[in-house]
Amino acid sequence: MPTSFNPQELPVIGIDDHLPAVVAEQLLPDALRRRFVAQPAWEPEIKIERRFTEREPTHASVLVPLIQRDEVMVLLTQRTDHLTDHPGQISFPGGRVEPEDENATATALREAHEEIGLHARHIEVLGELPTYTTGTGFIVTPVVALIEPPFTIAADPFEVAEVFEVPLSFLMSPANHRHHAIEFGGVKREFLSMPWQGADAAGEPRRYFIWGATASMLRNLYRFLSA
At what angle do helices 212-226 and 29-37 cross, to 10 degrees? Predict the structure, then answer.
């Protein structure tokens, strides 16, 4: 989506509080394992964004890290402002497929290690969600995994401005899913946001605006877990 606007300034045109949240028991690690082993019939809600670039499509993977704490948490990163693709946005660790990557999971694991220093020994891959194609031309495979603490984070300062965690239960409750729309180039574009009021590394209150492709992939995870 074009970044010549501030998504946080756009009005909310809808909130999905009419949809049920994923029940707490289904968000426990063993329940998540079972869901990926015996998958229900389901379809992702959002698969392809409207394209606004003519560049060649590029395959990529992201890791969706679910941290096994007292409550399962989702690890997210904030990208640095100088990056060419999606600068300053909140995202999952990930990036484009490289020739040496055996598959989408290998890409996600490599990128997570390069971006935030997360070692594979802490990662239990549960499975993949269907690809999500961004408006910038990335065909992204979300790789969902459980993360076993304790682990250390060593973020690449060139790519990652901050690493933080959000409760999975918050993200899997549609009452926290907000719809926005903007007309850009004569075309109406819609997107989701999931604003999270958390705290930064210093413990100071901070609002994290999760939106765009990251919010859409989380919405698809919601559909998968609630199917």
Answer: 80
